[in-house]
Amino acid sequence: MLLETTATILDGRALARELTADLTRRAQNLRDGGTVPRLVVEMVGEDESSLAYARSLLKLGAKIGIEVDLEQLSADSTDEQVIRRLQRLDADAGVHGVLLHQPLPRHLHIERIAAFIPESKDVDASNPSNQGRLAYGNHPLFVPATPQAVLLLLKASPAWPVAGKRAVVVGRSVVVGLPVSLLLLAADATVTTTHVATVDLARHTRDAEVLVVAAGVPGLITAPLVSPGVTVVDVGTTVVDGVLKGDVAFDEVAPLAAAITPVPGGVGPLTNVALMRNVIVATERAAASA
Q: Angle between the 12-32 and 267-289 helix axes, to the nearest 10 degrees?
């Protein structure tokens, strides 16, 4: 049961429904014009959690009108075999989005392979060129799905626009923390990025007007670590005793916050929708240039 709070609950499920309706309309327009949006999920090995993720994409794609194909390479595939497959997908005009599912098996080298993800089809922005555009603030072709979900929620919050606001990001991973920091900088926020080596985390988080937490540590952010009126986006998803927990102690922090995302129900529902949004954008670009 949620405690009484005056905070705005940033409902990722409701926003996901709105975006899905828009994407469904755009997918139908593309189909009516003779272009069927198609995403290929390239997976190395048969990890069950990875397969479950792929199945969720298949289900969402079918709902929107995007063909989603799951292609699996054997777990002992070499760098060269994965690269050759990515090159074939690059040459296939019927493929509009390519997602190389990560993490890869340990013997593979993502720093080498990622450069071969086709830039114009790189719907999770894993190619170093797309990451570089994000870093330079130079109109990236795609924004990674989870960081995009964070920004979508912030745009729906009372904290938007964030220009001039003090934003603190807890976590610096290349998947979430770093790109979120770059996106906030591009929106003219004043950004502090904290991480495992940060001394006195509370000094930084208490100064935040916008707080994005992506550390993977359940319950890391408690009431003493925030100031009243903060807007909080919790990216954490850790299963503890069979229950999904965020990085923010919701019941403690919500009474202090101006706006906050729940876990579950915040960033998670939007992430796959953001990925499909990138597929639609890629397909629209391809159709316009055909």
A: 20
